[in-house]
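for the recovery benchmark. C-alpha cells below, seq after
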C-alpha cells in the first residue's frame, strides 16, 4: 500500500493545483499532511516533519534565491540587460540575429528569474523584429529557449539550486556541466528551430514593445557583462580551485568559504550594488527599494520551495523514500532517464517546472546514495524533464501567447514544441556527459 499512498499524495497535489486552482504552497502543505497521515506517521509528528522540511530547505536556499533576485532586478533596472542585448546585436548583425537573441537570453537569463527575464527581454525582441522587419516569433524564440534553459538547468535559479541542496551536489560543478549541456540545447531549440517558425503569424501589441533608455544612461558593456556573469565566474572558479588544492592546504578553508553559493551571491550582489548603483550615482535608498521589490517578486517561489521541502521530509520520515529507492533499483532503466521521466510526467500534469522538479527530488533523493549516479547530472536530468511540453496549465504558455499575440494552435506549434525540444535535448546531453564523468 506504500506506493498507493505515495501516488495518492502526488495525485492530491496535482488535483489541488490543476483542478481546484489552489496556490501551490497550500497544495504542498495539504498533500504533505495527507501523505504523512496515510503513510502512518503519528499525528503529533506530522506538523514537526512539515516544519523541519520547510526550515531545512529554506535554510539552504533563501540567501541564494533572494540575493539572486536582487541582482537580477538591478541588472534590469540599471539598463545593463539592454546594453548587453544591444552590444550582441551589433556583433552578430541582421544575418545572425537569432544567434544574438540566443546569447542575450543566455547571458542575461543567468541572473534574471524567468518571469522577470521574459517581461524584460521579449519587448526588446519585438523592437528588434520591428526594426529589421522580421517575424516576431522567428526573432523571439531563440531568446525564449535560452531563458527556459537557464531557468531549468543553471543555478542560482530556484529549481536547480534547490535540487543541488537536496542531492548534496556541488553547485559549481552543476553549473559547469549545465553550461556544457545548455549551449547545444539552446542552439538546437533556438537558432536552428527558428527558421521553421518564420511563417507563424504574430502581431505583438505595441504596448509590449520596449522603450529603451537613452544610450548615455546605460552602463558600459564590460561592466554590464562582468556584473551579470560574476556569480558564474565565482562559482566555477572556486570549484576549479577546490578540486586542485589539497584539503590540508591553509587556503582550502578560505576557498571553501568563498565557494559557498550564499557567499558567492552575496559578494556578487555587493559588487553590483557599487558597479551598477553607487558608482553610477544611484543613491542607496533607491537601490534598497529595487531590492525590496525584487524580494516581493520571489516570495511565492520561496514558499513553493518550502512546501516541496515539507513533502520531501514526510517521505523521508516515513521511510517511503528508501522503500521507493530500493524498488526503483530493480527497474531496468537508467536512473537519469527515470528521474527525467518522473519529472516530465509531473510537469505535464501540473504545469510548473519548479513544482515538478522539487516533487521528483523528494521521491528519488535516496537514489543518490543507493545507486551509482552523479548527483550533479541528476540535478540536470530533472531540470530537463521539468521543461517538458508546456501547455494550457503553464503560465509561460499563456504569457507567450498573449505577448506574441498568436493563436492557440500556433502556440502549441512553436512554444510547446520548443519546450519539448529543450527537454529531450537536455536529457540527451546529460546521458552523453554521463559517459565521461
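predicted aa per position
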Amino acid at each position: 500500500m506504500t506506493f498507493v499512498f505515495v501516488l495518492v499524495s502526488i495525485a492530491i497535489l496535482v488535483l489541488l493545483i490543476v483542478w481546484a486552482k489552489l496556490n501551490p504552497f497550500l497544495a504542498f502543505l495539504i498533500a504533505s499532511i495527507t501523505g504523512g497521515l496515510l503513510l502512518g506517521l503519528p499525528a503529533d509528528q506530522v506538523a514537526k516533519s512539515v516544519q523541519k522540511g520547510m526550515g531545512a530547505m529554506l535554510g539552504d536556499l533563501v540567501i541564494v534565491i533572494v540575493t539572486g533576485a536582487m541582482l537580477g532586478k538591478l541588472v534590469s533596472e540599471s539598463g545593463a540587460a539592454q546594453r548587453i542585448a544591444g552590444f550582441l546585436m551589433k556583433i552578430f548583425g541582421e544575418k545572425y540575429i537569432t544567434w544574438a537573441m540566443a546569447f542575450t537570453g543566455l547571458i542575461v537569463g543567468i541572473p534574471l528569474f524567468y518571469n522577470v527575464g521574459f517581461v524584460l527581454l521579449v519587448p526588446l525582441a519585438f523592437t528588434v523584429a520591428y526594426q529589421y522587419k522580421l517575424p516576431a516569433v522567428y526573432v523571439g524564440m531563440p531568446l525564449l529557449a535560452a531563458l527556459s534553459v537557464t531557468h531549468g538547468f543553471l543555478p542560482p535559479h530556484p529549481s536547480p539550486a534547490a535540487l543541488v541542496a537536496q542531492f548534496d551536489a556541488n553547485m559549481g560543478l552543476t553549473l559547469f556541466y549545465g553550461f556544457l549541456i545548455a549551449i547545444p540545447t539552446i542552439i538546437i531549440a533556438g537558432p536552428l528551430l527558428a527558421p521553421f517558425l518564420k511563417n507563424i503569424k504574430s502581431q505583438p501589441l505595441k504596448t509590449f514593445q520596449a522603450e529603451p533608455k537613452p544610450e548615455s544612461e546605460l552602463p558600459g558593456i564590460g561592466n554590464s557583462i562582468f556584473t551579470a556573469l560574476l556569480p558564474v565566474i565565482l562559482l566555477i572558479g572556486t570549484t576549479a580551485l577546490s578540486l586542485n588544492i589539497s584539503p590540508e592546504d591553509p587556503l582550502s578553508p578560505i576557498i571553501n568559504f568563498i565557494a559557498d553559493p550564499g557567499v558567492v551571491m552575496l559578494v556578487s550582489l555587493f559588487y553590483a550594488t557599487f558597479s551598477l548603483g553607487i558608482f553610477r550615482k544611484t543613491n542607496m535608498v533607491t537601490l534598497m527599494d529595487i531590492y525590496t521589490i525584487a524580494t516581493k517578486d520571489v516570495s511565492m517561489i520561496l514558499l513553493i520551495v518550502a512546501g516541496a521541502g515539507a513533502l520531501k521530509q514526510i517521505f523521508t520520515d516515513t521511510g517511503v523514500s528508501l522503500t521507493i529507492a530500493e524498488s526503483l533499483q530493480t527497474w531496468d532503466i537508467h536512473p537519469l532517464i527515470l528521474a527525467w521521466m518522473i519529472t516530465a510526467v509531473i510537469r505535464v500534469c501540473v504545469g510548473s517546472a519548479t513544482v515538478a522538479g522539487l516533487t521528483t527530488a523528494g521521491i528519488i533523493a535516496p537514489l543518490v546514495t543507493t545507486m551509482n549516479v552523479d548527483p550533479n547530472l541528476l540535478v540536470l536530468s530533472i531540470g530537463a524533464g521539468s521543461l517538458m511540453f508546456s501547455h494550457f496549465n503553464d503560465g509561460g504558455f499563456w504569457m507567450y501567447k498573449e505577448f506574441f499575440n498568436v493563436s492557440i494552435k500556433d502556440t502549441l506549434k512553436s512554444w510547446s514544441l520548443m519546450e519539448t525540444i529543450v527537454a529531450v535535448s537536455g536529457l540527451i546531453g546529460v546521458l552523453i556527459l554521463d559517459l565521461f564523468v
